[in-house]
Amino acid sequence: MLHPRTVDRIFHRPELADRLSRVVLDNSPTSASPSGVFLSAPRRTGKTTFLRQDLMPTLAKAGALVVYVDLWADRAADPGQVIVAAVKAELAKHAPAVKRLAEKAGIRGGKVAGIEFLIDKLGIAMDATLVEMFVALSDTSKKVIVLLIDEAQHASTSAAGADALFALKAARDELNSEPHFGLRVVCTGSNQDKLAMLRGSKDQAFFGAPLVSFPALGDDYIDWFCANTGGLPAPLLKKTVAPLFHRAGHRPEMLGAAVDALRFDFNLTADQVQARFSAAVETQIIDANQELLRTLRSLTPIQAAVLKVMAVSGAEFAPFEAATLDLYQRALRSAGDKTQKRMEVTNVQQALTALQEKGLTWRAARGVYAIDDPLTVDVMRDNAMLNDI
Fold first, then answer.
1. Tens digit of pLDDT for each residue in 245-300?
2. Helical spans, DSSP H, in 264-272
3. Where are the alpha helices (DSSP H) in the chain?
4. CB contact set of 275 (below 8 Å; sequence gap of 6+)
5. Model confidence pTM above 0.90
6. CA angle, corner 68, sides to 62 and 69, nearest 5?
7. Residue 323 CA to chain centroid, in angstroms?
8. What 3 state SS string does 218-250 have?
9. DSSP 8-state class, residue 52
């Protein structure tokens, strides 16, 4: 029997990592990967685990230099500064190589590989541009650089973040030309509509880059889960787990929490395992949505009307158009609110601000609004909150 510390607690997806790695690093003239790759998947479905545990090692094994940035780790930090800090931190790891390059050229300080630094301090100039930093990384590492930006849609919430994306485009264009070694930008996010804003119009830095849905965990994960779930009087059956996993939105933590609840039930018998596991997963789903439901039910009539129209409009949501104002009014009437005679733009603006403060909606720096988490729409639909639109 394996010691617990030797058991790999992570479900790996090597075939997917290998395939995606080949697509990202493809240098053929017909490949779109040099323009950037955008991957969307709902939150808590294993995307970040895959990026860190499978894709990054596979890319590194293929000879790439991987830089990872998580824009969700500190939502208060400016996305542009987070990206710059990650690149600077990676460049600092290569400071000895930069120093050797400079000393070989007889330079004690100044500009090497397009970036200013001091040999004695191995520091990086505060005013160095993102392009200069990437050029320095490329020329010292002599590898294709892959920048992985997790929850990339957050970059569009600030002017600095948007500027950083354009700087990345400039760095990509520079590094994908001679004499450098190439730059690939892989952006992931939990909301496809928000990711699409980063590449869906000509005024966006990554216009035309491919946007694809990240494959959800499937039967192979369920097989792995059933095979690695111990501590119960009887094994879990795939026919029990599969429909529940789908009901739980393909979120592994839901299954794990349900198993933990059963492990501490010392009166559980073998013939009860399947039914009790099903009930435990359903409880997890209800509990996960309960806080969101409380927030939704605390909204004012106007806030609720705006959110409902956003939910049914999706990417076509235009908050201040006359037709949209009519939809708000219809939602208010359907909900039985007779106090609001006419929706005005100021009412909508106030509602959008309140919804954003409650974490239900999201606003890009250029004034485009979207529902923050697609799960919100699912919960509203499941609880008949969209029937009056």
1. 999 999 999 999 999 999 999 999 999 999 999 999 999 998 988 989 999 999 99
2. none
3. 14-25, 47-50, 56-61, 79-93, 95-104, 130-141, 159-175, 192-196, 219-227, 238-247, 252-263, 273-297, 301-313, 322-334, 345-357, 374-382
4. none
5. no
6. 160
7. 32
8. CHHHHHHHHHCCCCCCCCCCHHHHHHHHHHCCC
9. I
